Every structure is written in C-alpha cells, then in structure tokens.
Amino acid sequence: MERTQWNEPPGGAMPSPSRRTVLATGSALGGTLLATGLPAQASAADHGADHGSAPSDAYAPSTSSDPWRTVLDDADLVWERMPKTWYEGPYLGNGFLGSGIYAEPGRETEAVRFNIQHSEVQDHRPQFGSLFGLARLPIGHFTLEPVGTITGLNWRLGLRDAELTGTLTTDRGTLTIRALIHTTRSVLAVEVTPSRGERDFRWVFHPADAISPRAAFKPVPPGYTGNPPAGIEQHDGVSAAVQPLLSGGQHVTAWRERTLGSRRTLYVNVAHSYPKSTALRQALATVRATVLLPYDALALTHRAWWHAFYRKSFLSLPDARIQRFYWIQLYKTASAARRDAPAMATSGPWLEPTPWPATWWNLNVQLEYWLIHGSNHLELDAVTRSLSEFRDHLKAEMAPAYRSDSLGIPRTTDASLVNGGATDPVLGYGVGIPGQDPPTPEVGNLVWALHNVWLSYRHTMDKSILRDVLFPLLRKAVNYYLHFLEPGADGKLHLPATFSPEYGGNSRDCNYDLMLLTWGCRTLLDSAELLGVEDELVPRWREVLAKRVAYPTDANGFMIGADIPFAKSHRHYSHLLAVYPLYELTGDTPDEKALIEKSLAHWVGFEGALQGYTFTGAASMSALLGKGEDALSYLGQLMARFIQPNTMYKESGPVIETPLSAAQSVHDMVCQSWGDGSSVIRVFPALPAAWADLTVHDFRTQGAFLLSAVRKGGRTRWVRLVSEAGAPCVVRHGIAGAIEVRDGRGRPLRFTDVGGGAIQVALRKGESALITGKGDRPDLRIVAVEPNEEAPRWGLPAVAP
C-alpha cells in the first residue's frame, strides 16, 4: 500500500546544519564536500600537485583531502621488470593515435618499442571485404635504442596525467623518460633526458607492411595483395614515412626531434587521407606546429583535460585490486574512445597482430561502451554518432529486396560501417537472411547496437537521440524481422532459422533474435508514445508482443533456439540477452528467478570455450539477482584467469571489450536503474559483505539522475540524487528504518513509499534530494575508502602478483 509522508524537522540535540556550517566542517576535515547535499559537479581545479617537475595546479589541496588524487595515484601502473609484449606494457592514446610500449622482440636488452597505430588508418578495397580490403592497417613503430645494454627500468603510468614517466637503466647510464599522447593535438611526445654515457641514444622508425593483419592467420582471398612499401622522406627537418594505398590515398607518419638543454623530445603525428593524398601535408603541419611547444607546455593542456575528465564521477571501494582495475578502465576508455573517433575496433587504437582487424558488432562494440553511461562519460559515445552518421551504409548492406524499409549491421565492418564482402565469410560477415544460409543469417546485431543508443537516451533523457537516431533506425531494424515472422499451427508468431552468436548452427525461434525483437517492439511503442508519433506499424508491434512465441526453454533453462539446446561450452551469452543487458526478464517471480538461475548455472557449467566476457556477463546477471558474493566470485575468476598484467585481454589477438565490460559489472553491483517507464534506481543492490564501505559520486542513472551515496560499516548512510531532466524519480535507497528526504537547501521534501524499499520523490530539472536515516546527520564528504588489505599494483612490479 502506498503512503505519502512529509519529513518532520529534526528536534532536540540534532539541529539541521546550515550550509555555512557544513562547508566549514568540510574545509577543516578535508575531503570533497557535499553541503546538505553536493555541488552539482566537483571543480576540476581541485587537483593536487602534478608528478615530478610538472607545473602545479591552481588551488591544489593536500593529497589527503583530494579523493580523486587518492584513488588515481593509488591506481598507477608500475613496471620494475621489462614488458615483453603489448599485454604487459604501458599504453597511451586519445581515441585516434595509440602507442603500446614494450621491449623490441628479439632485442629485449637493446631497444624499447613505441608502437604507432591509428584508429582511422585502414584499407579501402571493399571488394575484399571488411577483414582484408577494409581492414585496419598496421603503421609501424619507433625503437628507442640506448648506447648501452638495458639492465633495468622503473616506469609508472600515471593515470591522473595520462603520462608515462620513469627511467631506463643501461650499463652506460640512464635515460629519464616522459611520454604522452596529447589528448587533442594527437601527437605522441616522448622526452628523454640522458645521462652522460647515454647522450648518443637514438630513435629509429620501422614502417610496417601495409597488409591486413588477418593475413598472418587466415588465407588471403584471390587477387588480394598488400600495399606497396612506405617511403621515408625528409621535409625541412621533418621526417615522414609516406604509405601509398592501392585504393588511392595514403597514411603518413611524420616526426621530428627537438633538443632543449639536455632534453631531447620526439614529436610524432599520423594522418590518413582517402581518396586524396593530403595526409602528408596534414602530418607535416601538425608536427611543425607542435614541435614549437616544449614538453611541459604540451603537457599542461593535456593534463587539464584528463583532470577534468576524471572528476565527472567517483567510485571508491575496499578491494584495492578491483578499485585500481576500475580506474584503469576509465583511463583505457578515454585513451581509446572519442565521440568523433571511429567506434572502437576489437583492439581499440592499439593494433597488434590479430585475426580481427575490424569492428565487431555481435558483442564487442556493445560491451566496449557500456561503462560510459554510469561513469558519466557520454562525451565518449561514438556508437550513437556512428550509427546516425552512416545509416545509409546500413541500408546498403541489406539484400536488395529489403533495402526500401529495413536496416541491418553486419558482424564486421570498417569505421564507416561498411562490410564489403557480405556474401563470403572469408572476406567478412554480412547481415544474412532468416531461413537462408549462406550467408550466415546473423540478423540481430543492429537491434543490439541500438540498445546502446537507447541507454544513451535514457541516461540523458535527450529526446533528440530518441527522435533522430533511435526511433528511425530501430523502426527499420525491427521491420526486417517483420518480413519473416509467420504464424504457426499454435497461433503464435515464429521466426525461421537464424544464427545465435557464436554457438554454431541455425535455429528456428532463435532466442537471440526473439529477445531482441521483443525489446525492439516494446521500445518502439514506448518511443512512439513519448514522441507523439502515430506510426502505422503500432498495431503490428503490439501484435508481435501479444503473439510472439515463448522463448524456447528446456530442463536446463534457455535454449539457443527451438532446434538447438544449450549443450556445449559457449563463451557468448547471446541466448540470455533478455536477462542481461535487456532486463526483459528480471526474476520478479519465483519461477522467473529459478529459470534465470538455472540458465546461468548451466551456461557457465561447461568449461572449455569460456572466455573473459563469460565471467563479466555472469557477474552482471548475478548482480541483477542481488547476489553480490557470486558477482565478486565471477570477477575474481576473470582477474585470475584472463586479465593480463596491464589489464588488457587477449583471445588469439588483442580484444578490448572484456576488461571494459568488467567495469560495467562493478557498476551493476553498485547501482542499477532498469525498469519499464520510470526506472527504479537501486542503490548498492549487489554488494558482497567485504565491500562494507563504499563511496560513489555523480554516478549517472537512467532518467538522467546523478547519484551520490556512501556506505559505512555495511550500512548505507546517505543517498543523494540530482535530476537533470525532471524525470520520475523512484529510488530503492537501502537505508534501514525511517528516513528523511531533504532538498538542496535542507528543507523537507515530500515523498511516497511505493513498496519494496523504494520511494518516489517529485524532482524538477535541477532539483536534488538527500535521503538519510531519520534524525541522522552523517558525514557528507566524498572520501576514498580504506582498502581491506594490500594488493599488488597492475603492471609488472618487482614481485609478480
């Protein structure tokens, strides 16, 4: 039964503190203050001093009073042993240019490799498909070659500054290094200060063969050859490796060294142009403009961007290893993603030898971008931008008979969502047609990708995303299914055989497609109502929801489809999407919960093909069920079995989605906000007992709320929500006993108990609500929590973890 309450003002010895009192207390005790609630956003100027000889930020408090600096400095990766591969070493990036740093293979004591790769550099021969003719192309690498033999190193990748610092020791002296990839100039800058014996160290650039990396793993298609070799040119003191492409166009790596006193700084830029050959001019101009800036001046604007980036949200928990891992994933995401950069390919900007030199849409892209929502980093959303910008390419990828009213996305594409060889799996995987094979009838990938767009809408409530991108694209993606739905003898609507990534075999009533179709029709109906659209397909969408055949199940839970049981080890949770991430089935009834538990246990019960993202999916599904211990256990298995020393991940080659989706699993343990209509914000829904203390600040939820909350000693002490859009606010706060709700000025707010431990509060845009126990006046500062125990840093510390 619902009941409406008014907070009573506290009485007796606990007067409501004034804003001035709280401010004064916060200033005296340190930490980031939340006066009666919180500032709308913590100031990006509140940083501590930078590392080393770098300039200090203005108004810098002590380290102990700055929770962001506390957690970020603690999360720095360190190397006291030489990294020998990409998954051991430091990495730098800005969504476009990327560099992985490790020993030159075969010359571990003679040279250090700085890989040079770029997310826009690709081939342009669509006749050979996305995996060869449109593949990302390797560029090359620099070697830092000391005079002497390398005997040791001490490096630190500082997350706050997104900068590698440290020393390289040889039998002739030392090389002190600082390196960054500037966040906006897209320049790699490496400053080296040598000791006397190392003054004659050198840089050497090694162009790579401009051929699809897949050629090292799979036979090349007939007629395919690599591009001609790059030529090294000199242009008034700037060196350039000019790589011509057989398709036309070019990519160019330009560099120059500048000496200032004892410091030598290398500046590197990569430019790509197609079909024109303008990359050389672009790269030369960028290097010439940047080389005028000393390293410190270049670092100043770079650090300012990163400092502001991190302060958009905050999370601290008592598991030191996972807390460090989480902040590294934020660093990694901002190094690999930008809204105007290509949607992340399988390895982000750090291209290494891989059979997957393209962008994968049947899981990888979706998982790569989930964490941007809760962490409040929608500025990195390349998925919404790419799907909108290249929607005409989605039309062109369809079989001709369906192009007038349908859209789809192939399994693999280039940066502009083109596949090229849609009918030949050697070249790339197209959309396919239900009931036919070849090509493989994998047809649900666009609907799943549009779920990411829906998340961006729900976390911002920006109707332009709904109106201009989600609704028109989802309408045509769902329409493709409608061509094939047919009534069966049971009176239900059925799908012909389609493919469930990546189980193998085609099945009628494939759960992957039925689950996405259900979500798609429901979302279209909700969107049409929100937008005031009277769409002629509304009756058809309703019919699908009313008559769609039930998801195929058997004694073990969800099947792959009506023809294929789940009966072998399988890394993908394509048959479970209705549970996660769609939240169409959430365990609200005992039977539904039992079905989810049985399906989850059966899925992960087969060893052999399980991979890292198996365990991130299992962790998030466990979090949905409120099983924090299980979620933590799955994350523990992920860390022990799959995550590499620098938090990268590999399956034959580098793949970036799994660690990023593990950060989303942490989000799902800390906060969930799914549900029909007005999503319920669930605060700390699945925390293990070991996470008795936890702090979250400006966590973005569905409905466009910014959540801040603190848990101490196993109790939630306070919760605050700031509304950015005036959406309905329903929150399951987790505070035991009677509560009080106050606005940003400390005044009581009316709220309604809606059952299940949740309340509803009416908040207009810009308003806030602070929820505390009745009569409680908790500490309202954002501080880093103390770790339960020590843990080794990520990287390669002297003693392996």
UniProtKB/TrEMBL annotation:
Residues 331-649 form the Glycosyl hydrolase family 95 catalytic domain. Residues 41-66 are annotated as: Disordered. It holds the Pfam family Glyco_hydro_95_cat. SUPFAM superfamilies: Six-hairpin glycosidases. PANTHER family: ALPHA-L-FUCOSIDASE 2. This is Tat pathway signal sequence domain protein.
